[in-house]
Design goal:
Elements lengths: L3 E7 L2 E7 L5 H9 L17 E4 L2 E4 L5 H4 L3 E3 L11 H9 L8 H14 L5 H7 L11 H12 L4
Parallel strand pairs: 1-5
Antiparallel strand pairs: 1-2, 3-4, 3-5
Bound molecules: FE2/S2 (inorganic) cluster (2 copies).
Length: 156
């Protein structure tokens, strides 16, 4: 099918891209817009490396088709920090939640979405909020501490 002009607000900017209707959001962000903070891993919706926000809700960018995100508001990890790191990013650094570059962006996007909905999550709510994010190599202790730290502080 022919390419068409896809329009959306990406990280606060009105954005246009020529895409095929069968294109998925993940390569559009990485290859089309150079936003490589969103990672490619399983491409099956299982690992969470590609999580971004669409209209404020977390989605797996590897599963979202171009037509499904046309006209929406998309936020990637690059859109979280403006002049300074976002509070979630700071907490990940301070509590050892920053692990590898593959899982961390998706983890942070999931945590931001969780805290937007539930500013002071319980441990079970944090585990549920991160249930779509997989780390295969280290652990979740530092991430849990980081989320708990954010939950205790003023949320923005
Ligand atoms: S790359 Fe999208 S969930 Fe794994
Ligand atoms: S996948 Fe990133 S630290 Fe395990």
């Amino acid at each position: 099918m022919n390419a068409y002009i896809w329009r959306a607000v990406v990280n606060g900017q009105e954005t246009e891209l020529s895409v095929r209707p069968s294109e998925r959001l993940l390569p559009m962000l990485r290859d089309g817009l150079g936003l490589t903070g969103t990672k490619v891993s399983c491409e099956l919706g299982r690992c969470g490396a590609c999580i971004v926000h669409m209209d404020g809700k977390p989605v797996n960018a590897c599963l979202v088709m171009a037509y499904q995100c046309s006209g929406r508001t998309i936020t990637t990890i690059e859109g979280l920090a403006t002049e300074e790191l976002h509070e979630v990013q700071e907490a990940f650094l301070e509590e050892g939640g920053f692990q590898c570059g593959y899982c961390t962006p998706g983890m942070i996007m999931s945590v931001k979405a969780l805290l937007d909905e539930t500013p002071n999550p319980t441990t079970d709510q944090i585990k549920e909020g991160l249930s779509g994010n997989i780390c295969r190599c280290t652990g979740y202790g530092g991430i849990l501490r980081a989320v708990q730290k954010c939950g205790r502080s003023a949320w923005k």
